[in-house]
Amino acid sequence: MERQVPGKEFLSVTVQRGQPGEAVRMQTFQVPAQDNQSVLDVVSWIQQNANPSLTYRFACRVGMCGSCAMMVNDVPRWTCRTHVSKVAKAGVIAIAPLRNLPLIKDLVADLDPFFDKWTDAEAHHHPTRDRDQPIAAVDPDSRERRQANAGIECINCAVCYAACDTVAGNPDFLGPAALQRAWTLYNDTKNADKNAVLDAVTGQGGCHTCHSLGSCTNLCPNELDPTAAIAGLKRASARRFFGRD
């Protein structure tokens, strides 16, 4: 606990400490309050001024990389774009690593399972042409292109994955980001194998596992709609099943 300076306002910030193989504990710091202060600023202040052993992850600081995502008062957020004034409750903030993922140390979650599920969802391109052929023209106003464009701003921050109660209850669920990527590729006219995508996302832990609670859409910092993408995969798989494609 940091000693307060008389006459100066402080935030009471509790952060999760620990790593695999040891008991996780909560540690509270008194952090000087500033007029314009992000949650990432608070975490950085603790590491730089109070406890240099605090481990956390960040890169761009401007909401482009997503690497600083953490649980803030039990809600997954980009800490660089989350202002203290919007989340502090009576000057109190609790910060933890993203849930639904293994812990590396302190505020750093292991994203390997998140990215492994992209592979499991067949979320990679199947080209229709090789490099020696001319690039195929794409109609930017087509329904398929609009559907594909709706999810391409995902930056893999895993906020939606941490927000997902279905993942919390079923670790086999592919998760919102992987399924949204699969829906993007399904609608890409340059993707040659739609059936491979549907095969991957309709198995165990696939799109039909989603309970459509909508937390992924509600909390996506880029205002994407994974819930709608998953619903699209459900409809596409149903059409294929009934021979409607």
Give the secondary structure arrangement, pairings included.
Elements: E1 10-17, E2 25-32, H1 39-50, E3 69-72, E4 75-78, H2 84-87, E5 92-96, E6 103-105, E7 108-109, H3 112-120, H4 143-149, H5 159-163, H6 165-169, H7 176-186, H8 194-201, H9 215-219, H10 226-241
Parallel strand pairs: 1-5
Antiparallel strand pairs: 1-2, 3-4, 3-5, 6-7
Mind explaining what this structure looks like?
This protein has 2 domains: about 10-110, Ubiquitin-like (UB roll) (Roll), CATH 3.10.20.30; about 110-240, Fumarate Reductase Iron-sulfur Protein, Chain B, domain 2. The protein is built from 10 helices and 7 strands. The protein has helices at about 40-50, 85, 110-120, 145-150, 160-165, 165-170, 175-185, 195-200, 215-220, 225-240, and strands at about 10-15, 25-30, 70, 75-80, 90-95, 105, 110. The protein has a 5-stranded mixed sheet. The model has no long low-confidence stretch (mean pLDDT about 95).
